[in-house]
Design brief:
Radius of gyration: 18 Å
Shape: globular
Number of strands: 12
Distance between the termini: 21 Å
Number of helices: 14
Largest sheet: 6 strands, mixed
Strand order of the largest sheet: 2-3-12-8-9-11
Order of helices and strands: EHEHEHHEHEHEHEHEHEHEHEHHEH
Length: 343
């Protein structure tokens, strides 16, 4: 897989260029803004999982969040902080599904219109849900076209506010509220584990937990075929890879964000990878043992725990999303043939 250094582009947000432009106070402010709007998602435990991990494991079920994923937290926080004039014109976002649904839902809640760029091969359930929340969907080819360029052009053409899926301080702060809740629900964690795509969730969560207790280790999990963040950390700079061929469509990023990488580089202790087969094993475990339906991306943390890549006494894991259709879910659990991307 080709790996290239990322050329730095102008920052999309007018919040300055400090390395850590998101603080624990920003996350706490986002939590107050989301109070009574976002679900306070439950935490689940499993004796079987504890035995296999050799630790107490606490699963934060963001699969049960509004819109089916943690993304609602960041989308709502970012749109809520727009001016009345900006909200009157509308917002635009690009996403394979979960951020798309989150922006569409948050926009509807806040009285604005959303336009969403989605790849033509986005999961049908995510596409239908995005339209169901009232958003206009514009399709593109994720393997041939650059969604960031398309999004910026559409924002300029229609004078819309761009809400990126991860590289935005208000989005990052909103995502970090999941970790604040988990620390309150399961005190005394020594490790926090989250999936890693563009880095918004782990950057926000790392900001939150390190602000409470710097000794808590933060560990990210990427699909083996899409390890752009791990490679970036090894090289000490952002690198770009080809679009990953993985069943974890929510983690198919080609490079970490500029803002998120700075936070990850400073606050995240380790990034590990899991295979698609391990993701399916984790999905099956969560369904059979805890009766939770979790999409491949959302199962990454549990896949790492079951695979022995996480060490600790009290481990918190964010199940980032549950947006997977019944047919796709059944196919993934039923056949190794379904492990082919787009299967």
């Amino acid at each position: 897989m080709a790996v290239d250094a990322v050329e730095e582009e102008p920052r999309l947000v007018p919040r300055g260029s400090l390395p850590l432009s998101v603080t624990p106070d920003d996350v706490r402010a986002a939590a107050a803004r989301l109070d009574g709007v976002a679900h306070r998602t439950p935490v689940f435990t499993s004796r079987t999982l504890d035995e296999r991990a050799g630790a107490q494991v606490f699963l934060k079920a963001e699969s049960l969040q509004r819109g089916g994923a943690f993304k609602f937290r960041g989308a709502y926080n970012a749109i809520a902080l727009l001016s009345d004039e900006q909200r009157a014109r509308g917002v635009v976002a690009y996403s394979s599904g979960n951020h798309a649904q989150a922006v569409a839902l948050a926009a509807a809640q806040l009285g604005t219109k959303a336009t969403i760029l989605m790849p033509h091969d986005a999961p049908p359930t995510k596409l239908e849900a995005t339209r169901g929340y009232g958003a206009e969907v514009v399709s593109y080819d994720r393997y041939e076209e650059d969604r960031e360029q398309l999004g910026a052009a559409l924002a300029a053409e229609r004078r819309l506010s761009l809400i990126p899926p991860f590289d935005h301080p208000d989005v990052v702060a909103g995502q970090g509220t999941a970790a604040l809740e988990l620390l309150d629900q399961a005190p005394g964690l020594d490790v926090l584990v989250t999936p890693v795509g563009g880095g918004g969730l782990i950057a926000g969560c790392a900001t939150a937990v390190k602000g409470v207790d710097p000794a808590i280790r933060v560990l990210g999990v990427e699909p083996e075929a899409g390890d752009d963040v791990r490679r970036s950390l090894e090289r000490g700079e952002r690198v770009r890879i080809e679009v990953p061929r993985t069943i974890a469509d929510g983690l198919q990023t080609t490079a970490p964000g500029e803002l998120t990488f700075e936070i990850v580089r400073r606050l995240v202790d380790e990034v590990v990878t899991v295979t698609d087969a391990q993701l399916v094993d984790a999905m099956r475990f969560l369904f059979e043992r805890l009766k939770l339906v979790v999409e491949p991306s959302g199962a990454a943390g549990v896949a790492a725990v079951l695979g022995g890549a996480v060490q600790g006494a009290r481990i918190g894991v964010v199940l980032s999303g549950g947006n997977v259709g019944a047919e796709r879910f059944a196919a993934l659990l039923d056949s190794q043939d379904a492990l082919r991307p787009g299967g």
